[in-house]
Design goal:
The protein has twelve helices and 21 strands. It is an alpha/beta fold and 514 residues long.
């Protein structure tokens, strides 16, 4: 029961119209007695998969137009959400900070300027901008040089006090410490690419003339590279930063070029090193050392860089499920509301937002979902997804969610290789979530009648490979749902590439760019 390509386009248009204006009148006269029983039977059949025999499964489906609960199993059971946590963080951030919110990064000076000499310190102050690139620090350094400064007699001061000094989130696994998706959080940081993976460096290897050449993006001497790799007939290489150090050890064999995204140990010191290097490139010499401290109250602004807006940041944040964006926004909310850039203050903002919008009890331990002590029910997620439809920012937020079956990386995001060629393609807008033994998919889909539906699917404690195809089958079945003519069959999925691994978000697997 698949649509043609023309009907898929038409379906996508219907979906966009159904969701863009928020709550509205049904597209057709809805008869609750038609289709619902078949839907229940089909979802039950999908969930009878043997992989879920020992697992926990919570599923809720609701009509966004009538408020009717079309399906529910374990709707109120608390489950591990993984990256579905980002639905709460992102919605609270937009509500609290606004779509036009920007992160400023500022250069200040103390003392006085005499000719080309600054008799005092140069201060680099951050507010958490996850989009700062090496080229942005270079532009700030160029502005310092344009101000006529060639020598700074004092120190280079890195001011990261906008946030507290807790770098790693609650309950994060120690063996994730060097992974870029669990990078330390700081008000001063830098990204190596336009996915804006703040707090990480890309380490690349390539075989040249029988030896292994190592490069970093951006070029930096902040990391200490220990290269033990050898050129070989195949690429089987491990690039790993040693726990609690700046040392990256490379072992194995290299035939073809390979890259790994590696989290730095101290994002503040790393960002300051990029800025100091850029200052030297532009002829500005800082005589003193680099230290981390708060800027004096009398420091004067020399230059400033403004980030993209939060509305723009939502795209790489939600499409690619960026953990660091979630944690930075959490601390930014805490700073905005209570003057404290801490996890506890920011998480209170997120949970208060949820409660104010009718969401039942939730347990948030971080902003991204890396913590296994995060707890949500599928019912609470559907409550949130229902409530935000009335928000003035909903359309921007909705479009920033991953879109099923759309191959464009910044459109389909973590759903780009799923549900292609089905009625769910270019229809389902939903947030994915993955940890070992955990997968979730929650969002919006438009039925075959043009009725907007809200759903949450949470699967926990399975021991098999990732059962994301079960989520896909349910989402496709919802796209086929009709009250005017019962679907009468369980959706059959066309085989799709779900990516090379099931325990992490597709977009977290950087080297393979799944």
């Amino acid at each position: 029961m698949r649509r043609t390509s023309a009907s898929l386009v038409a379906g996508a248009l219907v979906a966009a119209l159904a969701w863009a204006s928020g709550p509205s009148s049904p597209a057709v006269a809805l008869d609750p007695s038609v289709g619902a029983a078949d839907l229940t039977q089909d979802i039950n059949q999908i969930l009878s998969d043997s992989r879920l025999t020992i697992a926990r499964a919570g599923v809720v489906v609701k009509s966004a137009q009538t408020g009717e609960e079309l399906y529910a199993t374990d709707a109120g059971k608390q489950l591990i959400p993984a990256s579905n946590t980002k639905l709460f963080t992102s919605a609270a951030a937009v509500e609290t900070l606004g779509l036009d919110y920007r992160f400023p990064t500022t250069v200040l000076n103390t003392g006085r300027k005499a000719g080309s000499v600054l008799a005092g310190d140069l201060v680099l102050r951050g507010t958490g901008d996850p989009t700062m690139l090496a080229e942005d620090y270079d532009a700030l350094a160029a502005d310092v040089a344009k101000a006529g400064i060639k020598v700074v007699t004092g120190k280079l001061v890195a001011d990261d006090t906008w946030f507290d000094d807790r770098r790693l989130g609650n309950d994060w696994a120690w063996d994730d410490e060097t992974a870029y998706y669990a990078a330390p959080i700081s008000a001063l940081t830098a990204s190596p690419d336009r996915d804006y993976d703040a707090g990480s460096v890309i380490v690349g290897v390539a075989a040249e003339n029988g030896k292994v050449k190592v490069t970093t993006t951006p070029a930096t001497d902040y990391l200490k590279i220990v290269n033990k790799a050898t050129a070989g007939a195949e690429t089987d290489v491990l690039i790993e930063r040693q726990h609690g150090t700046r040392t990256v050890v490379i072992t194995g064999t290299v035939a073809d070029p390979y890259q790994e995204w590696v989290a730095v140990d101290d994002p503040t010191a790393y960002a300051a090193s990029l800025f100091r290097k850029a200052l030297g490139k532009h002829g500005v010499k800082v005589l003193g050392s680099t230290e981390t401290a708060a800027a004096p109250s009398n420091a004067k602004k020399l230059a400033e860089h403004q980030s993209m807006t939060l509305g723009e940041l939502l795209v790489p944040f939600l499409k690619l499920s960026n953990n660091i964006h979630a944690e930075i926004l959490t601390k930014a909310m805490g700073r905005k509301v209570s003057g404290q850039g801490t996890w506890s203050a920011g998480l209170k903002v997120s949970t208060d937002f949820a409660k104010a919008n009718g969401v039942q009890v939730i347990n948030m331990r971080d902003g991204s979902g890396l913590s296994r002590r995060d707890g949500f029910s599928p019912g609470s997620i559907v409550e949130l997804l229902s409530a935000v439809r009335a928000k003035p920012w909903f359309s921007t937020w909705y479009e920033a969610l991953p879109i099923a079956g759309n191959a464009d990386r910044f459109t389909g995001g973590t759903l780009r290789s799923r549900m292609g060629g089905t009625p769910a393609a270019d229809n389902v807008h939903a947030k994915t979530g993955s940890l070992t033994g955990v997968t979730s998919l929650s969002g919006y889909v438009t039925s075959a009648d043009g009725e907007p539906l809200i759903f949450s699917i949470m699967l926990n404690q399975y021991l098999s490979g990732s059962p994301k195809d079960i989520e896909d089958k349910i989402a496709v079945r919802l796209a086929q749902f009709s009250r005017t003519a019962a679907a009468g069959e369980t959706a059959q999925l066309r085989a799709t590439d779900a990516g090379p691994a099931g325990d992490l978000e597709c977009s977290w697997l950087k080297p393979v760019q799944c």
